[in-house]
């Protein structure tokens, strides 16, 4: 069984516009049409059983509608992270409710949400997330086409981990595209997760081998960043890496993500991989 821990989809009514906008801004290709059905077709081709959708609220007033949309698209084979904007953080009671509904974590993109990851004002929020037993998937490093400064450098994310070690952190893009030296110094080997999204096949081979060998296999998760890479190509590339053991590949492609999502038991896993039809929803995010 295979889990893709970091994907993006958009409502049908805005998917084409959103994908086109990101392609133009970032200068990258798209490998699906950005819709939920497009993701499901990609999963079938790739042999991926479960994809996790990550959405970012760029303004506090978007959180409610985005959360409704994320709740609506969850179905067997599709999981989602919850929405929150740090400018108006959720209360502990709201987090408890989300967790009772099956949401296990949040996606934060400090560049889009206009905060520095290690701003001390964020630490109480991080502590509340940790207290609820939830995690944060952080965008790591630069985002193509966005202006400087970079709000979530590996060094800043390492500072968060040092101050709030109880927070379960997943850092996307193996710490950050083109931030490999900084990641090696500040994040590699720490008790946090790195996901492989977007950079796996793009990063220099020496860094790729070092990262996947030196960071514990128990703290790596396979992710594609679909539609911005091809799920099938990313998964096959990872599975063919000769320096990873079969046990490593199983952890990276399945069991680590299953543990984070609370899907360790066979019945929960089976529920998630049974095919199901897509639900529609009214509002949705306009960013990756």
Automatic annotation (TrEMBL):
This is Amidohydrolase family protein. It comes from the Bacteria. GO terms for molecular function: carboxy-lyase activity; hydrolase activity. Transmembrane segments: none annotated. CDD domains: metallo-dependent_hydrolases (cd01292). GO terms for biological process: secondary metabolic process. Residues 3-263 form the Amidohydrolase-related domain. One of its GO terms (cellular component) is cytoplasm. Keywords: Lyase. Coiled coil: none annotated.
